[in-house]
Design goal:
Keywords: DNA-binding, Nucleus, Transcription, Transcription regulation. Belongs to the SNAPC3/SRD2 family. This protein has about 140 residues and is mainly beta. It has 2 domains: about 70 residues, no CATH class; about 60 residues. The protein has a 4-stranded antiparallel beta sheet with strand order 2-1-3-4, with no helix packed on it. A hairpin with a 5-residue loop joins strand 1 and strand 2. It is elongated and about 65 Å long.
C-alpha cells in the first residue's frame, strides 16, 4: 500500500499561494470536509507531481433528510467508467502494454495486448528484437 505525503496550500484570487500547512501522510481518496478550514478560498492539494484544485462554488444549508455526519462528505454521486484501449494490432483484446517512439508502429503511443507485443517485439526465447522505444504497462485511461 503506497502512502502519499500531501501538503495543502490555499490560493488567493491573484493565484498566489498565501500559506502552506504541512499535514501528515494520508490518501486523497480518504480526505473529507473535516480537513477544510475555510470555504472562502480555493484549495490546492499536491500529491507528488499532481495538483488537485478544489473550488466550492455553490453551497446550501443542511436539510433534515441529509446525512448529518460531516465526516462522510463529500458523498460520491457519480463514478466515471474506466476507458480501456484495445490492442492496435489485433483490435480484439484489451491493451496490456503501450509503446512510445516505436519505429514499427503507425501510432504514437501504440497499444498492444500481451500476445501481439511479444510477437512484434520479442524473439522466441524472450529477448527483445530491438530496444529503441519506450515501453509502459497499460491499465486504463
Amino acid at each position: 500500500m503506497k502512502d502519499f505525503s500531501c501538503r495543502r496550500q490555499s490560493q488567493n484570487n491573484n493565484g498566489n499561494f498565501t500559506r502552506k500547512v504541512i499535514f501528515k501522510a494520508f490518501f486523497l481518496s480518504q480526505t473529507n470536509f473535516n480537513y477544510i478550514d475555510s470555504f472562502t478560498e480555493s484549495l490546492v492539494y499536491l500529491q507528488g507531481d499532481c495538483t488537485h484544485t478544489l473550488v466550492i462554488r455553490d453551497m446550501r444549508l443542511i436539510h433534515p433528510d441529509d446525512v448529518h455526519n460531516r465526516a462522510v462528505y463529500p458523498i460520491i454521486t457519480f463514478q466515471l467508467k474506466l476507458r480501456f484501449q484495445k490492442c492496435s494490432v489485433c483490435k480484439i483484446f484489451r491493451a496490456a502494454k503501450a509503446t512510445v517512439d516505436d519505429k514499427w508502429t503507425p501510432e504514437n503511443p501504440c497499444y498492444f495486448c500481451e500476445e501481439c507485443f511479444s510477437l512484434l517485439h520479442q524473439a522466441k526465447d524472450g529477448t527483445p528484437l530491438y530496444t529503441d522505444f519506450v515501453e509502459f504497462d497499460y491499465n486504463h485511461d
